[in-house]
Amino acid sequence: MGVNGQGGGLNAETLRRRRAVTEAETSLVALVTANPAAGEALSRLVHAIAAEAARTPRFAKALADALGSGPSTASAPAAVRAAPKPASRSKRSKGLLDPFAVFEVSGEAGLRARLGTLTVDQLKDIVAEQGMNHDGAAMRWKTASRLVDRIVERVLARSSKGDVLR
Fold first, then answer.
1. Contact call for residues 145 and 104 (beta carbons, < 8 A)
2. Which of 33, 68, 147, 151 could form a disulfide with 123 if both were Cys (CB 3.0 to 4.6 A apart)?
3. How would residue 151 be classed by pLDDT, with cut points 50, 70 and 90?
């Protein structure tokens, strides 16, 4: 099915939101590389604001009003949490984050923490996008912990590949 909002596909608005989050994450990773103190401080600030907006609808509305993004943004956290999981998809969505970039900035513990916030389906998106399903088993797994272990294992393996030559 495609991106049409019917039958398990993701609608255009959901994809636009995911793209915005991915772009913001990429910018934060670049900032952390260039200026670690500023990048980490901004990352903590954004995380605190987003977590509070997701937890408190009134704060989310006030934030949307203050940023001039209207009422549709205020309902975004609830809409993201309540989105139905697709039954099956022939093509996976783009992963929500780049595990290699997160590992480079935060290390293994940071990567595990970030992956721990994702759903099984979102983790499978990352596995598919990064080519981490070498044995064909990961897409059948139902537990997030197994998928997190696979992603971390592959990131560590690829990150240390070629170390013997250094």
1. no
2. 147
3. very high
